[in-house]
């Protein structure tokens, strides 16, 4: 068995799409916090919030992936991921479960519709499939924009 076959993943939704991150790539999952918006800011930055005693930019994964923003619901969560000596809070529509995938495939063209390289691979289990996000590509595009 290789490392992917025993690794657990956090499943979450943005729109109708199911995404996943390796559990070791997730620092914490929290309920939505108050976010202070900034006029004329980058559209994927929802605003700023106080986390861990610091003011940090809160990123809308929905907008970062090219989807329209929507109102927060009781299911809206923030997935905090470590990135480049800090933490990036990502707003997602819903966190679903912890899963171990049965198999993996390289992303097909249909999975590249948001951004080239945003998926490391596609994970498959009995009842669904999920795009396994590549944080370096996803957040690297945020830093460059």
From TrEMBL:
<protein>
    <submittedName>
        <fullName>Chemotaxis protein CheW</fullName>
    </submittedName>
</protein>
<dbReference type="GO" id="GO:0006935">
    <property type="term" value="P:chemotaxis"/>
</dbReference>
<dbReference type="GO" id="GO:0005829">
    <property type="term" value="C:cytosol"/>
</dbReference>
<dbReference type="InterPro" id="IPR036061">
    <property type="entry name" value="CheW-like_dom_sf"/>
</dbReference>
<feature type="domain" description="CheW-like">
    <location>
        <begin position="6"/>
        <end position="144"/>
    </location>
</feature>
<dbReference type="GO" id="GO:0007165">
    <property type="term" value="P:signal transduction"/>
</dbReference>
<dbReference type="InterPro" id="IPR039315">
    <property type="entry name" value="CheW"/>
</dbReference>
<dbReference type="Pfam" id="PF01584">
    <property type="entry name" value="CheW"/>
</dbReference>
<dbReference type="InterPro" id="IPR002545">
    <property type="entry name" value="CheW-lke_dom"/>
</dbReference>
């Amino acid at each position: 068995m290789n490392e992917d076959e025993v690794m657990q993943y956090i499943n979450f939704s943005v729109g109708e799409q199911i995404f996943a991150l390796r559990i070791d790539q997730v620092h914490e999952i929290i309920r939505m916090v108050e976010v202070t918006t900034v006029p004329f800011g980058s559209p994927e930055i929802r605003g700023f919030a106080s986390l861990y005693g610091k003011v940090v930019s809160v990123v809308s994964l929905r907008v970062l992936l090219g989807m329209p923003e929507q109102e927060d619901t009781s299911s809206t969560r923030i997935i905090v991921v470590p990135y480049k000596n800090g933490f990036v809070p990502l707003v997602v529509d819903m966190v679903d479960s912890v899963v171990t995938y049965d198999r993996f495939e390289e992303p097909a063209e249909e999975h590249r519709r948001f951004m080239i390289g945003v998926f490391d691979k596609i994970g498959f289990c009995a009842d669904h499939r999920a795009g396994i996000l590549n944080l370096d590509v996803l957040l690297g595009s945020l830093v460059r924009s």
